[in-house]
Specification:
Elements: E1 8-11, H1 15-26, E2 29-32, E3 38-42, E4 48-52, E5 70-72, H2 79-92, E6 96-97, E7 102-104, E8 107-113, E9 119-125
Parallel strand pairs: 1-4, 5-9
Antiparallel strand pairs: 2-3, 3-4, 6-8, 7-8, 8-9
Length: 132
C-alpha cells in the first residue's frame, strides 16, 4: 500500500527565489524537487509547499485569493508586535504589503504578496489567559 501525502502547490516563474522566500520566512527546510524547476519547502509539522514552474505548453495559473497559504504563528496575548516582526521579515525578503496589519477579535493578521505576487495571509491568534 502506498502512503498518500497532501501538500500545497504554487506555480512560480523563479522557483529557487520563491523557495528561498518561503523557507526563510517560515524558518522551514528547502529541499530539491523532482526537477531543477521544482523545490519543496518542508515545514516542521510535515506540511509541504511544492513550488514548480508550469510547462511552457500550458497557460500559467491565474493568481487570486481563492486559495492561499496561511502562516499561523503561536497564539499570543499581544499578537500585533509578533505580526509586525513577521511582516518586516517578509518585506525584507522581497514580499509586498497588500493590507496593513490589523488587530481583529481573533488576533492580528496581514495580507502580503510573495515576490511573485501570490497572496499570503500572516496570522497571530489571540491567546486568552486560560489557553496559555
Amino acid at each position: 500500500m502506498n502512503a498518500m501525502q497532501i501538500s500545497w502547490v504554487l506555480a512560480a516563474e523563479d522557483t529557487n527565489r520563491l523557495g528561498r522566500f518561503y523557507s526563510e520566512l517560515f524558518q522551514a527546510g528547502l529541499l530539491p524537487g523532482v526537477a531543477d524547476h521544482h523545490c519543496i519547502v518542508q515545514f516542521s509539522d510535515g506540511t509541504r509547499l511544492e513550488i514548480y514552474k508550469p510547462s511552457s505548453k500550458r497557460p500559467f495559473p491565474t493568481k487570486g485569493r481563492a486559495l492561499a497559504p496561511c502562516l499561523r504563528l503561536s497564539p499570543s496575548r499581544d499578537p500585533l508586535p509578533e505580526l509586525q516582526r513577521l511582516v518586516s521579515t517578509a518585506l525584507q525578503q522581497g514580499g509586498s504589503l497588500v493590507e496593513d496589519a490589523r488587530v481583529e477579535p481573533f488576533g492580528a493578521e496581514a495580507w502580503i504578496h510573495d515576490p511573485e505576487g501570490n497572496p499570503l495571509l500572516l496570522l497571530v491568534p489571540l491567546a486568552s489567559a486560560a489557553s496559555m
